[in-house]
Amino acid sequence: MARPFKDASYPGVSSRFKNGKLIYRYRAKGMPEIHLPGKPGDPEFEVVYEKATQGQHKNAVIIDLPGRALPKTFGHAARRLETTMEWLDFDEATQRKNARLIERFLSLKVDPAYPLTWRETPVEHLDADRLRAIIEGIFRTNRTVAKHMLVAIKKLVWVATDIEKWIKPQDDPSLSIRVRVPKSTRNPAWPIATRERFEERHPIGTAARTCYALGFWLGNRRGDIAALAWDDLLTEEIELFDGSLVLIEAFDFRQKKNRNRHGGREMFIPVVDKLAAALDPLDRSKGGTVLKNAYGRSFSEKSLTGMMQHWTRQAGIPAGYTLHGLRRTFGTYLAECNIQARAIMEAMGHSSMTVTDEYVREANKKRIAVDIARAINEREAKRDAMKRRANLRIVR
Fold it and tell me: What's the gap between Cα 110 and its chain centre?
């Protein structure tokens, strides 16, 4: 004889003894009785129970409705996320990246032995242990992807906690999980010797040198370098903080990144002497973009990546030094010039101080190392001088 199962978290479940063994079943109105293996808390019990509550028992006919999702599931959270103003505020590249990661998570099976995926699973059924298992599985092969996956899942949980209130904030399974990724070694800053080698191989007036000069002395991304036009170059009289007036040339443009989000950050970058020298022989009469190929046409954003690889190879520079690396070089250069972090952030168009602070820390680390070496040398020089004076007294 069945008896009530007194646990509010498992509605529809009852239990009875059969052949001296306690067994569980699920039954809802209009549905046949479904046997639940194991006991509450067991993985196999939880999976079958979830499927039963969603009508996915063996006699049910499941109809896939594209674009639809079961209430309070991760699939539902994903659909809701795409309508939030926070999601719409992301640029297209960020949306695509997160959408790919979210789709990958939604397609994962909750248990390899069952067809149930996280798309059909209620958000409240994801606990910290299960989430950790998912992230650790990815972490073994690619820790960077694991970090991005965790961020993507956090967005779905955020919908459940802050937007829809399906679960309480303290029940967020991601609170205790952190993925630490070592500092990237990609796109390193160009050392002085590497820059000099490039300059020697590619003289002023060539597309290679123009691209290099724009990338380094403007410190902007490849999309901005490719799109930069002569119309963006203006001459303006500026009153400095000390009250003096100066007439300068400067590029005035909006960054391509986040242009759909908030119009792009507005940039005003004066043309320094070395950049002016690189631009001087170029033909401005035809207008258009500053950087042009041999046919007088603009470079596409993606083509600049391949061209910079070609140009560095021509100069005998090892692989890995990229156009984005020149942007890092500019940030490092400004920090080494003792420019304040806030000013570096404005000059590079960063939206936060995170990357800027890294440039300042690296520059300060070098300064500290030099100060230490100088102090050691001065101390040892004094010690040697004292020894020499002592020896002179002994000889006399």
Answer: 27
CA distance 102 to 79: 11
Which phi and psi angles does 4 have, rounded to 5°? Answer: -60, 145
For residue 280, give both structure tokens: 């001087």
Residue 320: closest CA among 201, 222, 226, 184: 184
Look at residue 17 and give its three-state secondary structure: strand
CA dihedral for 387, 388, 391, 392, sign (positive or negative): negative
Q: Is this prediction's pTM over 0.85?
A: no
Angle between helices 341-348 and 354-395 (to 10 degrees): 140
The length of the chain in residues reads: 396
Q: Domain residues of the chain, as ranges?
A: 13-55, 74-171, 192-356
Judged against a pLDDT cut of 90, whether residue 150 lies above it is answered with: yes
Asked whether the predicted pLDDT for residue 288 surpasses 80, the reply is: yes
pLDDT of residue 21: 81
CATH class of 192-356: mainly alpha
Determine contact, residues 233/271, Cβ cutoff 8 Å.
Answer: yes
> Is residue 124 scored above 70 in pLDDT?
yes
Phi and psi at 106, nearest 5°, equal: -60, -30
For the chain, percent of residues with pLDDT exceeding 70? 89
Is the Cβ–Cβ distance between 230 and 287 less than 8 Å?
Answer: yes
